[in-house]
Amino acid sequence: MTQPGCAAFLAASQAELRARQKAADDPVHRLSLALLLNHAGLLGHIVAAYQSRQSGDAEAANAALDHAADLLRRTEPRFSPYIDTMLALRLSVETHRQV
Fold first, then answer.
1. How many CB atoms lie within 10 A of CB 78?
2. Sign, Cα dihedral of 41, 83, 53, 7
3. 26: which DSSP letter?
4. pLDDT at site 28
5. pLDDT confidence of 16, banded at 50, 70, 90?
6. Do the beta carbons of residue 51 and residue 3 sit within 8 Å?
7. Alpha helix ranges (H) inside the chain
8. How far apart are CA 69 and CA 8, in angstroms?
9. What is the pLDDT of residues 51-70, one digit of tens each?
10. Which letter does DSSP use for residue 96 in this model?
C-alpha cells in the first residue's frame, strides 16, 4: 500500500472505529475501540512524517513526529494502564526523527 493509500485507509478506519465506538454498549468494547483509535491517530502522524520526509520537507516531518509525541503524552493518563508511553515514544517517534 502506498503512503497516500495508508493515509486514506487510516482516515477511513478512524471514521469507522468512531462509529463503532459510539454504538458499542459494552464498556470494554468501547475501551478497545478507543485504544485502536489512539493507535490509528499515532500511525497517521507517522505516515505524515514519512510523506514529508520523502518529499524533502524535514521540518514538516519533524512537526508530524512532534504531533505524534503530543498525542502520546496527551492520552497517557487515560491509556497508561495499557500503553507504555515512554516505550511508544522511543520506538514509534524518536526512532523516526532525523536531524
1. 13
2. negative
3. S
4. 96
5. very high
6. yes
7. 3-23, 27-54, 58-79, 85-88
8. 21
9. 999 999 999 999 999 999 99
10. G
